[in-house]
Design a protein that fits this description.
Elements lengths: L3 H6 L11 H124 L3 H34 L11
């Protein structure tokens, strides 16, 4: 590339009818000034372009770093999302298992309470039948007894005995009700 110094040092041969030397020198000086200005501007522009290219390269590296970071953040976010989903599914599964366990325990308690209630009802029926049978037997005995005098002597103790037995039946019924509400008593403990 031609430099301003090359133009300045350039010498032309003189010929017969050549150009006016002063005019050519003047023109060359003007060309040298303009060319020198353009040459400096060209160098400055090249430096500017080089700096811009360096900046662009830095920005490209920064952009790549940001893209890598973004991809990593997306992957991390996706992993966190998947982990949270798995954890939520595990919590739901555990809650369902616990609910099933509680449900089964309640069902067992209901079944046990139902069986106990049925036993209490059967006990009550048995006591009722036995007491009724006893009272009917006593009544029949009284009706079959001969004699007024013996009947009179018999009535007084028998009435006391009947009242005592009626009270015992009432106590047994209350007991069976209490045992039905309190799970600690054995329903077969008190047999008549």
């Amino acid at each position: 590339m031609l430099t301003p110094l090359d133009i300045h040092n350039r010498e032309f041969r003189r010929g017969l009818r050549g150009y006016d030397v002063d005019e050519v020198d003047e023109f060359l000086d003007e060309v040298i000034r303009d060319f020198e200005a353009l040459y400096k501007e060209n160098l400055e522009l090249k430096e500017t372009i080089q700096k811009k290219e360096e900046n662009i390269n830095r920005y490209k590296e920064l952009e790549q770093t940001l893209q890598d970071t973004l991809v990593l953040a997306q992957q991390t976010g996706e992993e966190a999302k998947q982990n949270a989903k798995k954890e939520a599914e595990l919590i739901i599964w555990e809650a369902q298992k616990k609910a099933e366990q509680i449900y089964n325990e309640v069902q067992e308690e209901i079944l046990a309470a139902t069986k106990k209630l049925e036993r209490m009802r059967n006990l009550e029926k048995q006591l009722y039948v036995r007491m009724k049978s006893f009272l009917l037997t006593q009544l029949e005995s009284m009706e079959n007894y001969d004699g007024e005098e013996k009947s009179a002597q018999w009535k007084q103790p028998d009435l006391e005995n009947q009242a005592s037995q009626a009270e015992q039946v009432d106590n047994e019924r209350k007991f069976s009700e209490d045992v039905g509400s309190d799970g600690d008593e054995n329903p077969w403990r008190y047999k008549v």
